[in-house]
């Protein structure tokens, strides 16, 4: 039985609310502190939530609510920019199925579920420092306020302040040579399968999309660009300017050309360069510990970022539930998670690299893809172990550690 009774969770995105719900289920009172002054509204960007992530949400009673704002994705279709099919494959045959959804919708639903379960979310609380003592940790925020608890959980994203408090020498995110943009078009791609994700290897860049029941098309684009562009820098560039650039990049590609022609500037979001985390040497220190993108942000190409964040939130709570002392709980948590998440990080980087292949590589892909999908790229073989992973909330953590994590 844990001796921990209270926790500060830094970050109100995806990992934060789930961590707070899981901690409450483990008997730990948790308060979420979000840096932004209010809930942000808008479409945001698209993401997928894999079956393992949905199953982990069931541990905190949030799976059904999230399914209500997502679309089931049962297969993937890969095409070239001319409309020719390169390959198609069913997703891993497991329930629940992968969901396609908007990040803002996912974050909103998770906050609502957390608050319904009694979690307090405090806004405009940007962490600047934390002081540890023998009996707790004191967080200091930019507005001059403070808060204290038995432990502090950093769920504060890829530029985590908590990560640098734990280890001032912690690595920074790695910038990948691709820009990430997304949006919604007032246009439904003709004859598109409503339960399929479409990946288009265009002449100059990569384009992904799915159609929505409301007649819109949700899309994202990865454009090669070796100049690092932060989110702040990308946000300063007028959306109309981004849209003009994308229309030029995809001028010769279908259906990207048509989708972008029906996208208005207010329906576009520019994220900047794709980033991922390298291996983080220290996941915890003293009374502080990391979850989600703060410690293991994979490339969006992995399709596992949100799902891994949810899993880690649940596993951390289980470890704190089953261990009386923080060092033992944190050690068990890292042992459960590190190997699994770093395997996904490597796969994500490999997948991202395929989005920058040149004309010769695309021709080879077109020739080899059908055979590859039947053999070494078979979804059951490559993604099955990831997506079939399930957390047994009621089982002792020691049982899982004894057999090893997937």
Structure explained in plain terms:
This protein is an alpha/beta fold. It is 36% helix and 26% strand. The chain has 15 helices and 19 strands. Strands 6-5-14-15-16-13-17 form a seven-stranded mixed sheet, sandwiched between helices. β15 and β16 form a beta hairpin. α1 (15-25) runs parallel beside α4 (103-116), α2 (51-58) packs parallel to α10 (305-322) and α10 (305-322) packs antiparallel against α11 (326-353). It starts with 5 loop residues before the first strand and ends with a helix.
Quickly list its features.
15 helices, alpha/beta, single chain, FAD-bd, 36% helix, 406 residues, 6-stranded mixed beta sheet, 26% strand
Q: In summary, what is this structure?
A:
By secondary structure, the chain is α/β, with parallel strands linked by helices.
